[in-house]
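Quick one: structure tokens for this chain, please?
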Amino acid sequence: MQYIKIRNLREDSDMTQKDVATLLKVQRSTYTMWELGDVNFPITKIVKLAEIFDTNVEYLLGVSSNKRKVHYRKELNYIYVGNALKLERIKRGKTQKEFADCIGVRQSSYSYYEDGKTKIPTDKLVSLAKEYHISLNQVCGEIKEDIFAI
């Protein structure tokens, strides 16, 4: 999976890969592999990037063209993501096997994603979002704006 929007936002912000890597607290070489799509970009780091570039996860991952800024939970973890996926699956009346088949993994592997025992690869999460019209912003801990209203 290529992350062209992420590269474009970085360049438009006059930031180097080293600058972004420092903000994400990773090595430049790690960030470079993520940006080039050589290695899956971890969801927690995508959320941090959305905050850095004042946009949202769905835009960064190419699921939406809407660049609106989204606020996310401060402590996003894989248990939260797994629970959110489980709720989305149940809401659609689907089985774990159906979701697993959609992303090309075994049902037991998908079960680990929902339990938060294993992080779901970003490309698999994007596939689920596209197939089942799941909001990646919500799965990644979107906080609705009205919470910030005074």
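Residues 4-70 form a domain with the 434 Repressor (Amino-terminal Domain) fold (CATH 1.10.260.40).
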